[in-house]
From TrEMBL, chain A:
Protein name according to UniProt: Ring-1,2-phenylacetyl-CoA epoxidase subunit PaaC
Enzyme Commission number(s) of this protein: 1.14.13.149
Keyword Oxidoreductase in record: yes
One GO CC term on file: cytosol
Keyword Cytoplasm: no
Biological classification of the source: Bacteria, Bacillati, Actinomycetota, Actinomycetes, Micrococcales
InterPro entries noted in UniProt: Aromatic_CoA_ox/epox (IPR052703), Ferritin-like (IPR012347), Ferritin-like_SF (IPR009078), PaaA_PaaC (IPR007814), PaaC (IPR011882)
GO molecular function terms noted in the UniProt entry: phenylacetyl-CoA 1,2-epoxidase activity
Domain of life: Bacteria
Swiss-Prot/TrEMBL keywords: Oxidoreductase
GO biological process, one term: phenylacetate catabolic process
Length: 278, 150
């Protein structure tokens, strides 16, 4: 149980229509804001990617499923980025639309292209199994706002992981072609796993205060979950391959070539009409 | 006050209304909690609450949106579940608190809200809104929405 944390402090206040809402406004420390921005950017970039599947998924039900998962992730991103913005007086929209590539803090996994459906599912599997362990642990965060967002998000991510797991089983156990593609997708995705579990200076400092969780401590549970799925699917967990992460990687604002075009599409409308609102 | 997406359920049935109080000066304070993080119906619900209270003669109304504790379908009232079924949406089966936490999940049968048959199948886990899955009854052959346990 956590204290009563209002969404006004966390997110929706300015964006929700109507008025009469006042929030006490819990302000994030500089470190907590940076941490919330990492988590928020992971969710935002992944949501944007999933949105690209709408009208293009293999079946109508998947358009809806990926759209709904993206919507949950947008919800998480809004709460997290709003909280991150309290440290510097920026709104969630300022952070989403008016930062350039080097200011984004997402890990490389989330900006890897959708590829074919199997690649999207492999990315979803890694992302949702990781986020499930992360948010589960953050429910106990000493930062009440982060704990509240995590407790809300973990239940939704549980459905996302179920979705990914079911598809991994189906593709791996389907036709020769679907199995071939699933294996290739897992192989291509795995080099981006390591970055998720790096303990850098910021998380180490925040973990000492009980605000963050050390990513390395999540890895055994993540791998056990992956192994349970892969055993059922007859797949092997790739080992020994890791992406070359330029100094600091996504958490330090150094990104692969895929983030730029994604941001351009996401930000063009807001930047063409600065200050416009619904 | 009903849910804009499921007009047979009040926000109290749904568990979205967490508290409402009036102080001695006549100021009303209402607490709402979102169902899913990205649920767009929350904006509409908040506006509807302000409108309804204003029409009822209260001019000092504040609506607070609360994230913790996180909303769960366990809060849905029994009356609400019965109304849902009559409307053609199967209510959550089982309790969120008792969900199996393993990564490879066993699916429980969901009853058809029209003919009560357990001979149904899931067409899509993500249905018309975030909170629902789409099912089909193999006996009466009707499709129906199922309100997922969260």
């Amino acid at each position: 149980m956590h204290g009563s944390v209002t969404v006004d402090e966390l997110a929706l206040a300015e964006e929700l229509a109507g008025s009469g809402i006042t929030g006490a406004g819990r302000v994030a420390s500089a470190d907590a804001a940076e941490y919330a921005m990492r988590l928020g950017d992971d969710a935002l970039v992944l949501a944007q990617q999933l949105g690209m599947w709408i009208t293009r998924a293999p079946e109508l039900e998947e358009d809806v499923a990926l759209g709904n998962i993206g919507l949950d992730l947008i919800g998480h991103a809004r709460s997290l980025l709003h909280y991150a913005g309290t440290a510097t007086g920026r709104s969630e929209d300022d952070l989403a639309y008016w930062r350039g590539e080097p200011e984004f803090r997402n890990a490389w996994l989330f900006e890897q292209p959708n590829g074919d459906f199997a690649h999207t599912i492999a990315r979803q599997l890694v992302a949702s199994l990781y986020l499930y362990e992360l948010y589960g642990a953050l429910e106990e965060s000493a930062d009440e706002t982060i704990a509240a967002i995590a407790a809300k998000s973990v239940k939704e991510v549980d459905y996302h992981r179920d979705h990914a797991v079911q598809w991994v089983l189906r593709l791996a156990g389907g036709t020769d072609e679907s199995r071939r593609r699933m294996i290739l997708a897992v192989t291509d995705t795995w080099p981006y796993v390591d970055e998720l579990f790096v303990d850098d200076e910021l998380v180490t400092r925040l973990a000492a205060d009980g605000v963050a969780v050390l990513p390395s401590t999540l890895r055994p549970a993540f791998e056990a979950a992956v192994d349970a799925v892969f055993t059922e699917a007859g797949l092997e967990r790739p080992t020994g391959r890791t992406a070359f992460i330029a100094s600091g990687g996504g958490r330090a604002g150094r990104h692969t070539e895929h983030l730029g075009p994604l941001l351009a599409e996401m930000q063009v409308l807001a930047r063409s009409h600065p200050g416009a609102s619904w | 006050m009903t849910d804009p997406e499921i007009p047979v359920l009040t926000i109290e049935d749904l568990g979205v209304l967490r508290s409402a109080s009036v102080d001695e000066t006549g100021a009303v304070r209402v607490q709402l909690t979102p169902t899913y993080s990205g649920c767009p119906a929350l904006d509409a619900m908040r506006d509807d609450v302000v409108l309804a209270l204003t029409h009822a003669g209260y001019d000092d109304v504040s609506v607070e949106l609360v994230l913790a504790p996180a909303w769960t379908t366990d809060w849905m009232s029994e009356a609400g579940k019965a109304k849902l079924r009559r409307y053609g949406i199967q209510a959550p089966t089982g309790r969120a608190a008792a969900r199996d936490a393993g990564p490879v999940r066993v699916q429980l049968a969901v009853k058809c809200p029209r003919c009560d048959s357990l001979n149904t199948r899931e067409l899509a886990r993500f249905g018309s809104t975030s909170c629902k899955a789409l099912y089909e009854c193999r006996d009466c052959l009707e499709p129906f929405d199922y309100f997922k346990v969260l």
